[in-house]
Design goal:
The structure is a single chain. The chain is mostly beta strands. The chain contains one helix and eleven strands. A hairpin with a 6-residue loop joins strand 5 and strand 6. The radius of gyration is 14 Å and the shape is globular. The termini are far apart. The model has no long low-confidence stretch (mean pLDDT 96).
Length: 126
């Protein structure tokens, strides 16, 4: 019902910046809490940032707080992740996701049962 496509990944030097975009089609993005997650080779997927439906609330992993900014433009069905001062250990595939409507469920379940993009590769060199 919702299709998500990430873009904006690439190769960047340590300390550099990238802006990731998530483009949605199908239902209006305003219906969904949105988030960014990442998965490095050989590691589990980890939470990066989330934003509420109207953008009033944002949450960040402690490791990225102060360096990354999540934002959304519901009129254009877009979600963004602006990343600054990137570190080599943040090399990963970055995924955009739309949470399910099960607000009473544990957060992990809400995201796992939602919609996911195919990911975009971010590589940070030393």
């Amino acid at each position: 019902q919702v299709q998500l496509v990430e873009s904006g990944g690439g190769l960047v030097q340590a300390g550099g910046s990238l802006r990731l975009s998530c483009i949605a089609s199908g239902r209006s993005l305003s219906n969904y809490d949105m988030g960014w997650f990442r998965q490095a080779p050989g590691k589990e997927r980890e939470f990066v940032a989330t934003i509420s439906r109207n953008g009033d609330s944002t949450y960040y992993a402690d490791s990225v707080k102060g360096r990354f900014t999540i934002s959304r433009d519901n009129a254009r069905n877009r979600v963004y992740l602006q990343m600054h001062t990137l570190k080599p250990e943040e090399t990963a595939v970055y995924y955009c996701a739309a949470a399910s409507f099960g607000y009473g469920l544990p957060s992990r379940v809400r995201w796992d049962s939602g919609y996911w993009g195919q990911g975009t590769q971010v590589t940070v060199s030393s």
